[in-house]
Amino acid sequence: MTDQPKPRTISVDFDGVIHAYTRGWHDGTIYDPSVPGAIETLAEMQRTFAVVVHTTRDADTVAGWLCARGLNAIPDHRTDRVFWNERETILVSNRKIASLAYIDDRAIKFTSWDQARADIEDLT
């Protein structure tokens, strides 16, 4: 079996991680400024990694919002995309793209099912 290189992509959640998201979904608009440090960190990450922003929002709208803040971003309209390896352009997607890491404010880090079950129980 040939060793495959690790993906060089980092996926980042949009709401609550990049967009402050203080009122929740609200009416679907992107109403808040960026989380402090988000735009600068995304720009820095692009020097080393391909970056995917994942969101349940309209990908075109999110890409436009990122571009308005000086980042080069495009919406993902492909339904068959699995990988993204472009470092100069952020891909905005509604799909989970293969990544080295996922940055998300609502994640439960998985180490075992016992730990996951305990973390889920803590949510109730």
TrEMBL record:
Organism name: Streptomonospora litoralis
Name by which UniProt lists this protein: Polynucleotide kinase
Top-level taxon of origin: Bacteria
